[in-house]
Amino acid sequence: MTDSTTENAEGAESAAVCSAKGCREAAVWVLAWNNPKLHTPERRKTWLACEEHREHLSQFLGVRGFLKEVVLLEEWEGRRDGSAADR
Questions:
Q1: Under 8 Å CB-to-CB from 14, ≥6 apart: which residues?
Q2: I need a labelling partner for 58 at 20 to 30 A (CA). Which of 1, 20, 44, 72 fits?
Q3: With helix as H, strand as E and coil as C, how does 61-87 read?
Q4: Please, which domain of life does this record's source organism belong to (predicted)?
Q5: Looking at per-residue confidence, does 80 or 21 come out higher?
Q6: Which strands form 67-72's sheet, in the order they lie side by side?
Q7: Strand 13-15 versus strand 5-7 pairing type
Q8: pLDDT tens-digit profile of 30-50?
Q9: Helix, strand, or coil (residue 60)
């Protein structure tokens, strides 16, 4: 299973889905964030976003000072694949 997929109850893979409440659209963006009160500076939590919800989710994290970067899902996966190969 790749990072852009999730496993459903039957064990089958399905496409990555937007993290916005109630949205079932395919994710296109990764919003990398951390809460400095809880996480070390290098740790990154992620939310996924479709085109419609990218700005809203970015603003939500941004006003709290949590948002670190927004990148295309495809680019994020490429980074992770490259770092795993370097180990």
A1: 5, 6, 7, 8
A2: 1
A3: HHHCCCEEEEEEHHHHHHHHHHHHHHC
A4: Bacteria
A5: 21
A6: 45-49, 29-33, 67-72
A7: antiparallel
A8: 999 999 999 999 999 999 999
A9: helix
